[in-house]
Amino acid sequence: MCTLEQRSNLFILTLTGNDDEHRLSPTLIAAILSALRQVKSVATSGSVLITNSQGRFFSNGLDLPWALAAGCRVKALSRLSQMVESLRFVVAELVSLPIPTISVVQGHAAAAGFVLALSHDYMLMREDRGVLYMSEIDLGGCLPDYFTVLFRAKIGSGLARRDILLRGQKVKGREAVEMGIVDGVWGCEQSLRVAAMELAERLGSRKWDGEVYQKMRKGLYPKLCIVVGAVEGRILPAKL
């Protein structure tokens, strides 16, 4: 599951459970979405969101075991589609938040977990344990449209996108910096979390206008906003 903590102007969203892979099940996706909407409703000028996790995983992607437990291929694909579409709303909310957002990847971020991390404005990563991996090519699954658009929006190098999406390259900390995916890497969990807090405090001290920040972010990623439904006049459902 996840928790949301407010420390002054900082909001800290944590995927909880040290032994958990933080697979994005319908329940966890709904909890994250609820937390983001709570942040959006009370955020003020100077607010910042940090998303992190406990244990060795940031998130190991969608809850494929839950999908496969449906008992047949048709039902499994239906469950998978349900999770893909639910996560679309999470990406839409992250793109629409009127505050800066930071993801803290202290462990593995695979497939949809990578997508969740990449949907933030800033990505910080642990050097020795952090791994980014898009498993779809190895599992024989096609990418949802908004996954592809997100990678094109957030990762400038075509070669990097090729290696991640078409080779299934497992990207570690230093490589992620060199490929332009993350903003920096740190050698241990403590230093990583301290760096995230320091970045959040620097960003929050700027006290940017939330409406302006949101509009400028959407202007940077117009195609992404369209495919996830984060466009003016489009109202996302109150509940999944």
TrEMBL record:
One BP annotation, GO: fatty acid beta-oxidation
Highest rank taxon of the organism: Eukaryota
Reactions that this protein is recorded to catalyse: a (3E)-enoyl-CoA = a 4-saturated (2E)-enoyl-CoA; a (3Z)-enoyl-CoA = a 4-saturated (2E)-enoyl-CoA
Top-tier EC class: isomerase
Enzyme Commission (EC) number: 5.3.3.8
Keyword vocabulary terms for this entry: Lipid metabolism
Annotated GO CC locations: peroxisome
Pathway: Lipid metabolism; fatty acid beta-oxidation
Family: Belongs to the enoyl-CoA hydratase/isomerase family.
Protein name: Delta(3)-Delta(2)-enoyl-CoA isomerase
